[in-house]
Every structure is written in structure tokens, then in C-alpha cells.
Amino acid sequence: MRPQRWLVGAAAAMMLTGGSAHAGDLLVNPGFDTASGLGPTSFSGLSSGGTSSAAAWGVWNNSMVLTTTDQIASTDPMGGGEAVHVTTDGPENGIYQFVGANSVSFVSVDVYVLSGTFELGLGQGGYYSATAKTSVHDQWLHLSASYPPLPLVGSPLPNEIGDEIFLYSTNGAGAEFYVDNAYAGSTPVPEPSGWAILALGMIGAGAAARYRPSAKPR
């Protein structure tokens, strides 16, 4: 009976954590749990040269305003550990990460917007054409964006496979948000509801195996 009890326990843990470490994730430090060692950061340049509070994540400013980052304890029910707190005073400013060239067709992230509008972007060479946006405040949301299977007509990109993920403001007055549990890869990951359904299915399978009646002796 021990294997069945372990199966139920593993499924319950998956439902609580949301499987924050996804197989196939090409990002470094996708959960933002590893700090860069710089403490809170601020950047007011007009470029991609800023550093963030999270290791492997940079700050990208498209407007000459201040963008700050800091590590906080995450309250994301599907994440945990730490999250990055981003505040910016202008549009299209935030944090980003480059991955292997032409290797990403799907990105996702959990976000908690305190003010302004947040956008998740999947891009290539500094351009992006696949995005997901929200202006819902004061609750954790899961956003995802993916390129279509065929190139977009008139797209400035040579193909529809990207190499970077953007987490940024699209509001003229800036935005403030928390991000956690990011993903970038070639295949989609299950949405939070999918993890819950999978977990319930595993619990059901474990329970059925545990309580299956034994065959009667003849």
C-alpha cells in the first residue's frame, strides 16, 4: 500500500505547488528565487543595460524613466519562494531574459498587478509579436502567449520562433507589479486548471488502486 499512499501525496503536492519547475523550461531562474546579490536595483537608462534584483534577469527601458526591482516573499498560490517586485514610471519598461536563439514559441508567467497595465511578451531580436495583457489589479493571474504555427503575414521577424521573454508595463503612467513562476519553451505547459485536473485524476487513480477489492479465493 505504500506506493499508492505516495502517489496520493505526490498529487496533492503538485496541486499545491502548481508544478513551478516545468520540464522544458529554457529560462534561468524562472521562479525568481535566486537573487542577483545586488539588492534592490534602479535603472533610468534608455536601453537593455539594467540589472534586476533576480539573477539572470535584466531591466529593459524603452522610455527614459526610472524602473526599480526588488525581491519579495511570493504570495503566488501556484509559485512560492520569492517574486520580483517591479515599479516603472513609463510604458514598455520592465524585466526580460534572452534564451537560446530561435528556441521559444510559448511563454507564460504569474503576475499580480498593483497599478497600471502589465504585458507579457514573446519576441525575437528586441521585437515582439505575441503578447498577453492585463489591467486587473490586486489578484494573481496566469498569462500565456504563443506564436502561431505559421509565420504572420507582414511580420518583421524572419520566423515565428522567439528568443526572449518580456515582463513589462504598457501604461503611459507606468505600472507596479509582482511576477513569479515564468516559463519559456517550445511547447506549452498545463494551465493551472490543468494541473488541478491532473492532480485530481492521480488522486482518484491512487485511491482506486488502494481500495480495489481482492479476488475471492476459489
Describe what you observe in this structure.
Helices cover 17% and strands 36% of the residues. It has 218 residues and is an alpha+beta fold. It has two domains: 1-22 and 191-211; 23-188, Jelly Rolls, CATH 2.60.120.430. The strands form two sheets. Strands 1-4-5-12-7-10 form a six-stranded antiparallel β-sheet, with no helix packed on it. β8 (118-124) and β9 (127-134) form a beta hairpin. The longest helix is centred in the C-terminal third of the chain and has 20 residues, at 192-211.
Derived from helix and strand composition plus strand pairing, the structural class reads alpha+beta
Poorly predicted residue ranges: 1-20, 194-218
Q: Estimate nothing, just give the exact number of structural domains.
A: 2
Q: Bin the helical content.
A: 10-25%
Q: Sketch the topology as an H/E string, one letter per element.
A: HEEEEEEEEEEEEH
CATH fold type of the largest domain: Jelly Rolls
- The CATH homologous superfamily of the largest domain is termed Galactose-binding lectin
Q: How many beta strands in the DSSP annotation? A: 12
Question: What topology, given as strand order, has the largest sheet?
Answer: 1-4-5-12-7-10
Principal-axis shape: globular
Report Rg: 20 Å
Mean pLDDT, nearest integer?
79
Our count of helices gives 2
